Amino acid sequence: MEALVEVVAVPDRPRTSRWRALAAHGSVVGTAGLWPVSPLGLDFRQPRRLAAEPGAAELRLYVKPGWRRRGVGSRLLTAVREHTTEPRLIVDVASGSPGEAFCLRHGFRHTGSRRHELLTYCDVHQAWLGELVDAEHPGYRLTHWTGDLADAPGVDELLRGPGRPGNAVLTAAETDGDLAAYAVAVVDAPAAPRAHQYGPAVLAGHRGRPLGRWVTAALIQRIREVHPHVAEIEAAGADDDPHLLATRRHLGFRLLRRTRRYELALP
């Protein structure tokens, strides 16, 4: 049955790669894609140039139920491994799902659990949100940047450059010109109703203040101004980060799903 499937590359945007598994009659029976793990590097607690972890790519692989356990997923993974230059692949799958079984069969190792949460704008009290954003934080000021993260440098470099139309929104707190905290959101497609948030991150020396909540509230407000079609924001984070969970719960995020993270080291 495997011989009846052809895996082909799909032209895509910069910094993403995609493949399709096509059956003999031309229908798509599986897909695979690689995305940056986060738009500004793996370690969201500090600017990208200071991150110590090696690079990685997020793998999203799907095979239609009727075609599973017939080698389609394995062929897609082979295509990914042959073309990626990243040293690691990272994937989030639901516990006990076919995706988790696939990871275990192909040598992925479990590295943690993640919590995905959703905020819908219809549930946000705009006046209350505005009060959070306008609250004074002595010594700190909010800055914003919008643009395309295809060739994103570190967060601080982005904030020093001019903003422009694009799929990303960055909100940061600065003090005396130094980056203190930030949060980022990315809209995957021009008309997509959902944005994906990364962070907030508060740098060492600035923790213990509600800066994470401040930049996140400002980001929520800013996304709607720049991308008025966006109706909801999805955010993911470690399931054992109480500060992050408390910040999102305070702002109205609700649990969407839980996933398990697996990683595969590549030669």
Characterization of the model:
The chain has 267 residues and is an alpha+beta fold. Helix content is 23%, strand content 37%. It has helices spanning 72-83, 98-105, 126-134, 155-160, 211-226, 242-251, and strands spanning 6-10, 17-22, 28-36, 57-63, 88-93, 109-120, 141-147, 168-175, 178-187, 194-202, 232-238, 254-265. A 12-stranded mixed β-sheet has the order 1-2-3-4-5-12-6-11-10-9-8-7, sandwiched between helices. The longest helix has 16 residues, at 211-226. It is elongated, with a radius of gyration of 20 Å. 32% of the residues are buried.
**Estimated share of beta-strand residues:** 35-45%
Put simply, the count of helices is 6
Helix content: 10-25%
Largest sheet: 12 strands, mixed
* Number of β-strand runs: 12
Distance between the termini: 29 Å
**Principal-axes shape call:** elongated
Strand order of the largest sheet: 1-2-3-4-5-12-6-11-10-9-8-7
What structural class do the secondary elements suggest?
Answer: alpha+beta
Radius of gyration: 20 Å
Low-confidence stretches: 41-53
Mean pLDDT figure: 86
What string, H for helix and E for strand, traces the elements in order? EEEEHEHEHEHEEEHEHE
